[in-house]
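Pasting as-is:
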Amino acid sequence: MSRATCDGVRGQVPDFALGTLTGRERAEMIEHLDGCPACQALVGEYTSVADALLDLIPEAEPGADIGTAVFAAMRTPARARRRHRVVALVAAAIIVIGATAGIGIALVPRDSGGHGVASAPTLRSSPMVGSGDITVGRIVTSARAPRAITVSINYWLTDGSYALAARNRAGEASLVGQLQIKQGRGSWTGNIPERSHPVAVMLVDKLGNVTCEGQLP
């Protein structure tokens, strides 16, 4: 008999749709879904949204020079952190940034051939990369000014407050916000000033260590 409840399952539906649950969590979820049509329907809705959003957003690979200037000026992590599975894309973050940037998002089935897209979003995504070139989260940005950005972390960093800074090509960094990590996860949504022409954002702990960095796509 499944130990999962409807309330518990609903709280894990986004992670299930994105394929980020642990093996045990996924097994308990599937066992519950076998006997719960209501939760089955909810999972189907989230999965459709996640799939559609992944289709809409192009991938941007980090440049070869990312982080060189900043990492030279700051202390690098003393030891490599344990690798964890991370969220490739958080659908909720994309919906939030779409609203922040005033962008309309129209989801279209994959077999529609691209017809019927009314107001395709100008959004791009790139990875947040930690020590050992491990992807620890995502950046999603808009192309409109002021540039809206969402940074999502799903890496088991120590809980607490981290400084979110923007870096330009000259290596100059400026604080843009604070990102709170709780149980290894956290996100931040806001605007990035364009006057300094930022090319990357980084997460810095209280000791000045750069925990991860990502190129602004």
